[in-house]
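Predict structure. Chain length: 227.
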Amino acid sequence: MNLSETILIIDDEVQIRRLLEITLSSSGYKISEAATGKDGLIAAATHHPALIILDLGLPDSDGIEILKKLREWYQKPIIILSARNSEEDIVHALDNGANDYLTKPFRTGELLARIRVAIRQNLGADDNPILTFGSLSIDLANHTARKNGEILKLTSTEFSLLALLAKNSGRVMTHQNILKEIWGFGYVGQTQYLRVFVAQLRKKIEDDPAKPQLLITESGIGYRFHE
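Prediction complete.
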């Protein structure tokens, strides 16, 4: 890990900021803090953080609006850390550009793992044309996938779906995000259509499709490709 990496915390709760500061500093990160959305936008532009942890319940504005403003120019990972835990809130945040979503109270070990995944993805997942997950390898350049060395017979749509999820491994991809990326805006409501393709893909990449270890369902939200 690059010890110069800065993480910006935008949260109005002093106790949460203090806990995060201790946790992240002990893992080698530098910390920048903001208690309001306005100050958070200024800090993001000033400090150029490697990742932002954003609360949704800010005193001066809704966190979703801050997320939208950040996504107008900030391309690095944003993790939502919020007491809001409804599927609607989670999907809304992910659809508006959040890389991940954790609810309070949270486990610090899980947060650190999510941070590592998000930063690693941002540093160069797309630079490597071959992604490897145990016995599964995905050659992005040649549009092929192998399991235990054997080429998988995937349709072009199945490969596109697999590549999208694998390139975003560790990140929750909402149904709407996936449908839009693979099939276009006209399919954003066709979640059953997506389930069919996920089921087909699991039969080809999982050791036991009934107990998937790679392509994980996030109930009511979407899917996460597990590293």
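Summary: The domain at 127-225 is CATH 1.10.10.10 (Arc Repressor Mutant, subunit A).
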